[in-house]
Amino acid sequence: MVDKYMLRKHSFLGRDYFHVGAGCAILLFLLLISIVSPEAYTWDLLEDRLSCVHGYVSTTDGKCVCNTDWSGERCEINPAPSCDRLKYGSCGDVLFQNAIRTRPHIKEKQEIPTCKCVDECLQHDLTTFGVDIYEEILRQNERLSFDITEYHVCKERDGTYRNSFVQELNVTKRLERRMQGGALAARSLSETAVHGDVIKEEDRTRAYRNRILRKNNRCSKNCERFGKCELFECACSSGRFGMDCEFDEEELEKAKIKSEKRNIKNELSVSVADLPGGIRRFFRGISVYHKRQDGRQFVGVHNFLESLLQNVDVIDPNSESEKALVVVPFFPVDILSNLGGEYVEFKVLLRRVLKYVSTKYISQERTMIWINAFDRSLCTPADTFRQELPPGAIVLSQSGVWRFSIDQEPCFLEDRDIVIPSALSSERGYFGISDPTHQRFEKSTKDGYLLFFKGSLRKREKFSPLGRCMGDKLFLNITECAYLYSQGVRAWLVDYYKDEKRFFLNQNASIGETYEEIRLKSKFCLVAGGAGWDQRFIDSIHHGCVPLLTQLNYSYPFHFIFDYDQFSVYIPAGSQKLKEIPVILETLGNGNYSKLLRNLRVVHEAISWSVDRHKWFDKFTIQNGAFYHTLWALSLRTNKALTDVVARKLCKLYYKNPYHATAYDILSPVVWTQLKQRCINFG
């Protein structure tokens, strides 16, 4: 029968202008020819030539950009038909995630990809992207976390297991080496497991489909409206253009005209690079962090891209336009962990993208925008990768960690990169339903604890080095402690103030009371970092709780736009003032606290993403403030003028704010001076 992946969402049988009898005849014809070739007539299933079967039409050149592991002029060809993609994931997973390594504590035996599947995937990668890009994976001394010569195994048709030799690019030589290596004893595989949690054999059941396809298989609203979501990637309907199916033909033409006018006036214009799925998502990834729903903090970077693709006043449909900034839509946190996973895996993925992008834009000096949601900027536990990006690159990061060890190269360039807000992790969101008038930013509602903190300390972990940061040791060893979990502050503060009745520090909540409610009534909230980024920064602001910041060598969201002294308290890790926190906070609570809260409400709007409209946003002065501030930050970094549409949004928040006459107090004086004249001109 016809492969279910090859059928379009909009079936020809659904059109009422087809006679029922004719439709049945066509269906019978297709079923008969599918016996010969399930792919040969996919082209005829499409309504016209303005669509791609498994991908989208580029707004730059009108060609199809294929999703992961699809090829052909219209992304209609399955290049690895011998692979079960619901079992093994992508070809990248087959080649470099489904390796065999001994794990004595794992007793179940995992099914291994067939040798034919491995060979098809290797040929697809070489044919589609070239030898140079494939060889990025094979760099000497920088391989993935297994030896592909010894540990990558495939299964022959007769059931024997052999080393795959995926590092051998010549097909004939690969087959010879595979046969010369001899069959591996089945007994030697009895206590081995597939490397990586891609898809276990038992997950082919309904439980797998529920867990992955329904919960994690999410795309943007535009994609779900104008296309079909295929494991995190979009296959657009006929007549739609762009990676999120964001344009029809008329909208695309309007966007092109607007972008040309912006380029003439040197106004901010941003395009999005076309990355094929095999580059963008080489590993399929089943990350718990990529969940397209409210309450998942790692989707802030996705919110930016979705907002950009929907905004014709900024988006440039032509990614080859020399005057436009170019966003590279590569989201490593979606397919690795929030800490970068195995650092060699991130290195492989990043270098594949870099090789592809540098080849595509080789003749142009472009400002490339890279997107990142790792907790430690572009650092992993073992290495940093910021220096691998091309000159002039800007990183939009949800974390502003400068470096993660004293001798490490920078993860984040304070004078070049931009920290953007993450999304909320709180289940109750912005408290818009229970507090539509934002009373939590009024001093009268803060009748709870002086300081709130709930979270991990890590001090009790076996062999934890945080013991060297307890008591007065924190101040003596701050150079070392600055690169440990929370820079030692969480554990130190909870221990030092364990008897302070005005503080809520990891206590148990009273019966009938939630931690969310306790934080909502607290005056100040500790934000001391964790393994890098601390989500409590975002959550405390949205709860109307003034953040107490402590991190060294760190940049916070829009750090060169905001004046943080106007809405937060900063006591750096290692400072003796940590011993004076009760006095400092009580002084602020009795004096300037009301102003801090009013300013915090403005910040609350400035860092909020509202890609999907919710009724509690109706009380906001502007919608999607985080997006407009990101554009403002990009314009400042690149010396591009803001468009009138974006400038008017900012002026409305800071110059015509209905609840705060001097809302611009939260801005750095330099940037406010630049914006003020635009606001005056608007009247």
Question: How would you describe the overall organization of this protein?
Answer:
By secondary structure, the chain is of the alpha/beta class. It has four domains: 1-45, no CATH class; 85-206, no CATH class; 218-419, no CATH class; 439-608 and 610-682, no CATH class. The strands form six sheets. Strands 9-10-11-12-13 form a five-stranded parallel sheet, with helices on one face. Helix 22 packs across helix 23 (644-654) and helix 23 crosses helix 24 (669-682). The protein starts with 19 loop residues before the first helix and ends with a helix. Mean pLDDT is 80; it is low at 1-49, 101-109, 190-216 and 287-295.
**Approximate shape:** globular
Tell me the fraction of residues in β-strands, as a range: 5-15%
- What can be said about the biggest beta sheet? 5 strands, parallel
What is the helix content? 25-40%
Strand and helix layout:
Layout: H1 20-34, H2 42-45, E1 55-57, E2 64-66, H3 85-88, H4 91-96, E3 100-102, H5 115-129, H6 131-135, H7 148-151, E4 153-155, E5 161-163, H8 171-180, E6 192-194, H9 206-214, H10 221-226, E7 227-230, E8 233-236, H11 249-264, E9 270-272, H12 277-280, H13 300-309, E10 325-328, H14 343-360, E11 368-372, E12 394-397, E13 418-419, E14 451-453, H15 473-476, H16 478-481, H17 489-496, E15 503-505, H18 515-521, E16 524-527, H19 536-542, E17 546-549, E18 569-570, H20 581-590, H21 593-606, H22 625-638, H23 644-654, H24 669-682
Parallel strand pairs: 9-10, 10-11, 11-12, 12-13, 14-15, 14-16, 16-17, 17-18
Antiparallel strand pairs: 1-2, 3-6, 4-5, 7-8
